[in-house]
Design a protein that fits this description.
single chain; 259 residues; alpha/beta; 2 domains; five-stranded mixed β-barrel; 8 strands
């Protein structure tokens, strides 16, 4: 105990520095663990919601709170001329997938005019790669004409990316356009139509329409959080051991000199 007290009192600057490293490392490590636990909890919540009865977008004007993260079917007509392509979206990487997750592309948001009701449901139809030679060239995709039936999962939004500045003014709505983020309320104001207060992420796979819909599970990245947490805890431990060992070596040298 006297040795430890001596290491602290005789090396105040080194002790404070080591303490900062330990505190920062432990705090960051626990934060990474909490992020992993949040993803696991969200995935479990989503799995439970998906076991509930499938909703029908045509039979009721569902609210976001009751429909969020539940399965839903919808029938209507796509309006491709009002599509919004969300830029800078990484390729979805399904569980166990080996695709290049760093590949950037677009998410295609397309309005669906619901059959039998005067309401629009925005559908996240899937992901498509970007043309690396011309960023303004949109991917070639196929859109079924006439009435279509789709199934997917309800979400509040298709995910957001960092965007410099805020969109102001009216956008051209006569043709598909490229955006960084999707704002449901803004689309309703631009088009002056009634919309469902959520988007439907389509689940259908195996359709050759130029879009990828093998969505990544919500637990994607959990292992990475655990790895980051290990690194932060290792940093904290290294800081403490460096302070302890260097102090013992220094104390031993002073002891030898005093003899």
């Amino acid at each position: 105990m006297n040795i430890f007290y001596s290491l602290v009192t005789k090396r105040i600057v080194a002790t404070v520095s080591a303490l900062l490293v330990v505190v920062i490392g432990c705090a960051a490590g626990f934060w990474q663990l909490s992020r992993a636990n949040e993803k696991i909890a969200l995935a479990e919540h989503l799995a439970a919601r998906q076991q509930m009865t499938i909703l029908n977008a045509n039979t009721q004007d569902w609210g976001l709170e009751e429909a969020n993260q539940r399965r839903m079917i919808a029938r209507g007509i796509y309006l491709p001329q009002a599509s919004v392509w969300l830029d800078n979206r990484p390729r979805p990487l399904p569980a166990g997938g080996v695709a290049n997750a760093a590949q950037s592309g677009f998410l295609l948001m397309m309005p669906l005019k619901l059959e039998g009701v005067d309401r629009i449901l925005w559908v996240n139809r899937g992901w498509a790669p970007r043309n690396n030679e011309d960023r303004e060239t949109l991917p070639l995709v196929k859109t079924r004409e006439g009435l279509v039936s789709i199934e997917g999962i309800v979400f509040a939004h298709p995910g957001k990316v960092y965007e410099l500045g805020k969109k102001t003014g009216d956008a051209a709505i006569g043709a598909p356009r490229i955006e960084q983020n999707f704002e449901l309320e803004r689309e309703g104001q631009l088009h002056h139509w009634e919309q469902s207060p959520f988007i439907l992420r389509e689940n259908e796979v195996g359709v050759e329409d130029g879009l990828l819909r093998e969505w990544a599970p919500l637990t994607t990245g959990v292992d990475r959080h655990y790895a980051y947490a290990f690194q932060w805890f290792a940093l904290a431990l290294s800081g403490f051991l460096f302070w302890l060992i260097s102090g013992l070596i220094q104390q031993r040298k002073h002891g030898d000199q005093s003899e």
